[in-house]
Design brief:
The protein is an alpha/beta fold. It contains seven helices and seven strands. Strand 4, helix 4 and strand 5 form a beta-alpha-beta unit.
Amino acid sequence: MNRIVLITGASSGYGKATAKAFKNNGDTVIMATRNLEKLNAALDEIGGNLAISMDVTNPADWDKTVEIIKGKYGKIDILVNNAGGGVTIKDVREFSVDEIDSTIKLNLNSVIYGCRAFADMMMKQKRGTMINISSVCARQCWPSWSVYAAAKAGVLNFSKGMYLEMQPYNVRVSCVVPSSASTGFQKACGIGETTDKLMPEDIAETVLYIANLPERAVVEDVTVWGIDKEINPL
């Protein structure tokens, strides 16, 4: 199959597991994140093909990445916009303006920048798949997660609109909506890590399934819960 796959936030969590899943599938895997040392360690561990140090909140880094991929491979088959993070989790009144802006830029703007950057290449190819990673915070509400939830709800609805724009060019855009998983995410937010039954590999398999569907089929969005999670509004 040997598709060219770019995955952001690929040094850990969902991104690293997804990179491994595509590599095991026989694809050429490009892994991107800001921390090049951590990224190179992940690349060596899974046998990835190329590491790119980039800040997904910087449009210029996206332009640079497009040129690298165009020059080395001449195409892009699959873009997985996975990079994101809580930045800080607390009540809205406690946020600084910079913290609000950082949360939105990392979790929403970066996805828009990525799809924007690779849209022309995929349109000219008349094929390609964009898969954006959101969160169940896009559909459910918890105290102190409001700003993060706003960004992830934006990812979900942006993906729907982007698909309509790309559909005439035979380009698919999908959104994966994971519940919390054992990735280290919440520890990084400073609120302590949970022990979840859902694993990064489960999200990776979901992303791979979407990408491996025949090009005539597209998943609009899919929510993946751990079996231990319960949402009961009553």
